[in-house]
């Protein structure tokens, strides 16, 4: 029996805090995280759930998006990945992992704060993949601020653009290409339901993502397309030590969860697979919490 199938205690299955302080400049690189995150590189095993599907995943160079992209390729999908140009090193690893499955990988570096790029990235994904069946809008900006006054207009604007405007622009560009059976998946957060004081702007966008996706689902189901939201709790990704949390909180990241540790990106990938697959056929407008036991209300 492989380790993956062995009965394991989920509290000790993956690294627990304390972790080292490890500040990075945003957006951060997964390759610099200590401990190394598990995005499924060796642990995710596919079973043909998405054979022949064409997927676009934003923010797929690292973290949750990377885990979704790896899982999609292992399930048989071709995958286009969007990321910031400064993340090329992480992204090229994902491209190689997708290709190693014999699937097509399309790399789309660019800044989703720009409307023109959002529209262009969808076009390039559709042209490169020959269509679009799965759209995962997952790129996100999280920068903590201790005081209200520290959240500048520039900050507020960039968080709104990355987390909300880009969502709208990408959905608008993609919608004409989505055929019955296609699926849209967005990434919200427990922050939509239990906002932290230090994440004023970020938490607002995450609540917005949930509301937007529920409204979107009502449009899309009229053409047989589903849209759902995943709301993660604490996951071990570059988002946190690159300004998402104060350094001293990074050392204890995930300690508050029922598991006493953060989730690893691979532990949320199965939900991105389910919502994209035919097995998720009766799910739309739902928010699925993978919060480490906190729940969403
Ligand atoms: P991550 O840093 O690994 O991924 C976020 C990605 O967003 C980056 O890799 C980057 O490619 C992309 N991105 C950011 N700004 C961009 C821009 N302007 N243009 C293009 N791409 C841009 O971190 P992650 O934790 O995997 O984040 C993925 C999603 O999960 C985010 O929406 C985040 O808000 C959400 N989330 C994360 C956690 C967590 O604890 N890690 C918890 C709840 C929600
Ligand atoms: Mg990244």
Automatic annotation (TrEMBL):
Residues 15-26 have a biased composition (Pro residues). GO terms for molecular function: oxidoreductase activity, acting on CH-OH group of donors. Keywords: Oxidoreductase. InterPro entries: NAD(P)-bd_dom_sf, Sc_DH/Rdtase_CS, SDR_fam. The keyword Chloroplast does not apply. Coiled coil: none annotated. Residues 1-47 are annotated as: Disordered. It comes from the Bacteria. NCBIfam families: PRK06128.1 (NF004782). PANTHER family: NADPH-DEPENDENT ALDEHYDE REDUCTASE 1, CHLOROPLASTIC, NADPH-DEPENDENT ALDEHYDE REDUCTASE-LIKE PROTEIN, CHLOROPLASTIC-RELATED. Belongs to the short-chain dehydrogenases/reductases (SDR) family. This is Uncharacterized oxidoreductase YghA. It comes from Devosia pacifica.
């Amino acid at each position: 029996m492989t380790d993956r199938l062995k009965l394991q205690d989920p509290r000790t299955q993956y690294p627990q805090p304390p972790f080292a302080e490890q500040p990075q400049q945003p957006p951060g690189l997964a390759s610099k995280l200590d401990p190394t995150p598990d995005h499924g590189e060796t642990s995710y095993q596919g079973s043909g759930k998405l054979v022949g599907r064409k997927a676009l995943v934003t923010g797929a160079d690292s973290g949750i998006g990377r885990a979704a992209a790896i899982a999609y390729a292992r399930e048989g999908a071709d995958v286009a990945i969007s990321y910031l140009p400064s993340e090329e090193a992480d992204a090229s690893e994902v491209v190689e992992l997708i290709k190693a499955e014999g699937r097509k990988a399309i790399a789309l570096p660019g800044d989703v704060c720009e409307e023109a790029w959002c529209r262009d990235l969808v076009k390039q994904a559709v042209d490169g993949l020959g269509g679009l069946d799965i759209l995962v809008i997952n790129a996100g900006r999280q920068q903590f601020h201790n005081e209200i006054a520290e959240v500048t207009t520039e900050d507020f604007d960039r968080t709104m653009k990355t987390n909300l405007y880009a969502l709208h622009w990408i959905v608008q560009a993609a919608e004409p290409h989505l055929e019955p059976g296609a699926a849209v998946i967005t990434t919200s957060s427990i922050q939509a339901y239990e906002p932290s004081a230090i994440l004023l702007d970020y938490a607002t966008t995450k609540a917005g993502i949930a509301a937007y996706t529920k409204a979107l689902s009502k449009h899309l189901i009229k053409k047989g397309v589903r849209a759902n939201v995943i709301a993660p709790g604490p996951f071990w990704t570059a988002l946190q030590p690159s300004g998402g949390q104060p350094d001293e909180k990074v050392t204890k990241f995930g300690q508050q969860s029922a598991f006493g540790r953060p989730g690893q990106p691979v532990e949320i990938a199965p939900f991105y697979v389910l919502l994209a697959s035919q097995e998720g056929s009766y799910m739309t407008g739902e928010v699925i919490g993978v919060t480490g036991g906190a729940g969403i209300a």
